[in-house]
Amino acid sequence: MSDVVTRFVPAPRQIAWFWAGTLVGLYLIEFPVRFSAPEIDYAAAIGMGARLFERLSAAEWIMFAVLVVCALVARPRGWVWLAVVVVGVLLSYESFVLMPELVERGRIIVAAGTPPPSSAHRVYSSLELVKAAALIAVAVGGVRQSTPVSKAG
Question: Which end of the chain has less Cβ packing within 10 Å, N or C?
Fold first, then answer.
């Protein structure tokens, strides 16, 4: 990879820290505030959450694509690649299996209904913890490998 490209492409660790920080901001700040605000009823909070999760999913796919490109440029250690793959698998499962069910459950609640029992929310929350751990693994280990400089003569 040319030195010019590696100089201007962020290290995977930068993308992973940003992404992990985004998740922390949402889960530890935004969600608790939204559900504790007296001005917002539960159904409205659920409706906002469904929209937020849909947009978060789109943003996470963009961050995942950027993370993969940065990792291709940086050529990190094998275990960092394993963490990137784990993030991709979890993101896929969340987006294509869990998210549709959670959004539908949110629609039922917003329409003043009661959805059938499901473990989807607990599974999603658990996978988010694993995804955050994998992102932190990338952030800790996703450094650029320096290219050895050969000395002439």
Answer: C
